[in-house]
Amino acid sequence: MSDTGDTRLAILGCGAIAEQLYLPAMRHLPGARITLLVDGDADRRGGLASRFDVAHTHDTIDQCYDLFDAAIVALPPALRQPACIKLLTQRKAALVEPPIAFSVTEFDDMIRASEQTNTLLAVAQIRRFLRAHRFARFLIESGTWGRIESFDFRNGYIDSGPIGSDLSFRKEIAGGGVLIDMGVHVLDGLLHWLGDFSDVEYFDDAAGGVEANCLLNLRLRNGVSGVVELSRTRQLRNTAIIRCGRGSVEIGLDANNSRLTFANQPYALGGLVGDLREPGQDQDDLGLTRALVEDFVAAIRNGRKVEADAPSARSTIGLIDICYRRRRPLQSTWAYQEATGNA
Amino acid sequence: MDRNDLILVTGGAGFIGARLVEALAGRGLRIRVATSDFRHCAQVARFPVELVKADLGDHESLARAAAGCTVIFHAAYRFGGSPKDERRMNFDGTCALAEAFLEGKGRRFVQLSSIEAYGDQRGGDLTEETPKRPIRGKPYGNIKQDIERALLDLHRTRGLAVSILQPTIVYGPYGYFFTIRPIEELRSTRVVLPAGGVCNAVYVDDVVSAALLAAERETAIGEAFIISGPSPTTWRQFYGAYEKMLGKEAVIELDDDQMEIAVRRQRARSSLPGRLHGELAKRPALRQRLLNLPPQRWLLAGGRRLLPDPAKAAIKRRYDAFWDASFNASETSSLPFIPAESWRVIYTAEYHARIDKARAKLGYNPAFDLDHGMARTAEWARWANLLPI
Prior knowledge:
The structure holds 2 protein chains of 2 kinds. Chain A is α/β, with parallel strands linked by helices. In chain A, 32% of the residues lie in helices and 24% in strands. In chain A, the strands form 2 sheets. In chain A, strands 14-13-12-11-7-10-9-8-15 form a 9-stranded mixed beta sheet, with helices on one face. Chain A has a 6-stranded parallel beta sheet with strand order 3-2-1-4-5-6, sandwiched between helices. Chain B has a domain at 6-175 and 200-237 and 351-383: NAD(P)-binding Rossmann-like Domain (Rossmann fold, 3-Layer(aba) Sandwich). Chain B is built from 16 helices and 15 strands. The longest helix of chain B is centred in the first third of the chain and has 21 residues, at 83-103.
C-alpha cells in the first residue's frame, strides 16, 4: 500500500479498454490509485500516463513489483494467462479481462497459482454489475417465475467496438472470434443464472480465420435446453429470453432493459431495471467499470469475496473450449459460389 | 492466379471487396486486405487473410500494403469532405497505389470503377465507346472518370497491366446503396419512384466473377468493361423484388408531372413554416394555446386596423393556411419518401448498359438474373434480420 493507505494498482496493457474505461473510471476512486502503466509501446504508455497523471510507466512488470499492490490485466487475450501467473507468483492480486484463458488446462494453472500463493484472482465480468443481470438472477433463483423451460440468448452488433488494431481478428492472439470475445460475457451470464451445461452443438462461419457469427444449441445439467446466437456482422435482439412456467423474463444482455410476461395473460411489463437507492439513474460503461474496480479493491482491502472470482469462470472457459473442438460450419445459402458459366 | 501470388484487395472490408475476398479465399489464394478501419473487418476476418491498415490519403501506407503483391484489386473509395478533398484522396491515392504496383513489378491491377464514370447518360445503348459526359454537382463520377484516364495513361506510357471494371447497379448480401437502403426505406414508409426508369442491375457475385476474369485474362489488359446483369430491368421491378421480400406494397410510381408536384409539396413541407405547421398539426393543444396568446390577438387587431384591404386579404390567406388544422397528424406521419434529386437522376435514366465487350473479351457470362440474385439476397436479408419474421 501507499503512504496514504491507498491500494496501488498497475494496469497491464494500454489499449482501448485501459484508455476508454479503466483510466477514466478510476479518477478519484476512494482507496485506490493507479501508480504504474505497463505497455510495450513507450509513446502510448507515456501519453496515457501524462493524461491520467500516473507516476510510473514501464515496458514490463519484471522490475516494477515494488510499485504496485495489485494489477488490472488488460493485455491482448493470448498474453493474459502468462501475465497472471507471473503476478500471482509475486503475490499480486489480479483483475483480468475475460477471456482469462483459452482452455481449461491453462485456466487450472492459474487457479493453482492463485491457491498456492493465497492471492486473489478476479475476472472483469462487467455485465455481472448490471442491475438487469442481478434482477434476472434474483428472479430465477427465487423461483418467482416458476420452473425454467427454455432459453434464447441473442447478442450481436454490426461493426461494434473500438478496434485500433487487427488483434481481435488474429486467432493466435484473440483465441477465436465472436464466441470467445462476446460469448465470454454472454455465456458467463447464462451459466451464472441458469447453472452449468451438460452438452452443446456448435456452429460458426469461420473459414480459416475467426468466426463472425456463431450458434450454440445448449443443454444444461438441469435438463433445460436453449439457443445462443452471437454476431459481429448483424444487429440481433441483444436480450436473453428465459421461458418459465409462470411466464417469461426478457433481459438486456448489455443494458438494463427488461420485459416480463405472464403465462396465459395478454399483459407485459417492461422498462429499465432501476435501483431504488439511486432513483432515476441508469448505469453507463464508466460507472460499471468503477463498480468492478471498487469491488476488486474492497476484496483486497477487506478480504471479502469478489463478484466474479476466477473459479466461477471455469464453466464458461470449458464451454468455449468444447465449442471450438466440436465446431461445425454454419450453413449459408448466400455464400459466394464460383460461377460456372464464364467462358 | 495461384499460391505464388500475393493478392491485395483495397477496400476489402467493403461490399464488393469483401465478396471478392470470399471468392479468392475459396480458391485458396494468399490475400492481403487493406482497410482504413478495422471495425469493418469481421466479415473478411473469417478467412485466412492478412489485414493491414492503409488509407487513400496516406501514400506510404498504400506502398506498404502493395509491397510484394503481384495482383491488386483496387476497390477502395472514400466519400466525403469537399469535392476537392474527395478528389485528392481518391485520385491521388489511386495514382500512388499504381506507382507502388509498378515499382513492385506487379502482374495485374484491377480497378473497380463504376458505370457513373460515363456521367449523366439518359437513354439508348451504353457501351464502352459511348462518350463520357461530365456530371454536375457530384464528384464521384468525375473522379472515377479521371482515375480511369490516369490508369490507362500509365498503361500506355509505362506498361501498367491494368484492367478496369465499370459495374452498374450492384446489389446483394451486405450491399448498402441498392440492398439495405431500399429495404429500410420500404420497411419504414412508402417510396416514390419516377415511372419508366431502367435499372441495369447486377448481382454482386457476377461482379466478383468479372473481377477474377479481369485479373487472369490477357485480353483484359488496357481495357475497360461495363459489367451488368444478363438483361436490364426497371426500377419498379427492382424495388418490387424488395416489396416481395417484405410482404408489402410500398412503391408509388409517379410520372414526371406528378413527381414535380410531389417534390414541390415536399419542399414546402420541409421549409421552416412547413415544418412548424407539421409540428403544430401533431399538437392541437399547443396550437390552441398559441392562438390564444395575447400578442397574437393584438397583432391581428392591429393588422385589421392598419393594413389596406388587399394586403389584409393576402396575409389572412397565409395566416389561415398556416393555422389550419385540416392537415392532420396521421397524414404527416405517413408521408411517402421522395428520393433526393441525385437519386431521381439515376431512377429516371433509360439507357441499356451493354455487356457485349465483357462477354467477348473477358468471357464474362453473368449467372444471376434478377429473380435468382434477389432470391439469394432475400435469404441473406432474412438472416440479417432486415425482413420481418
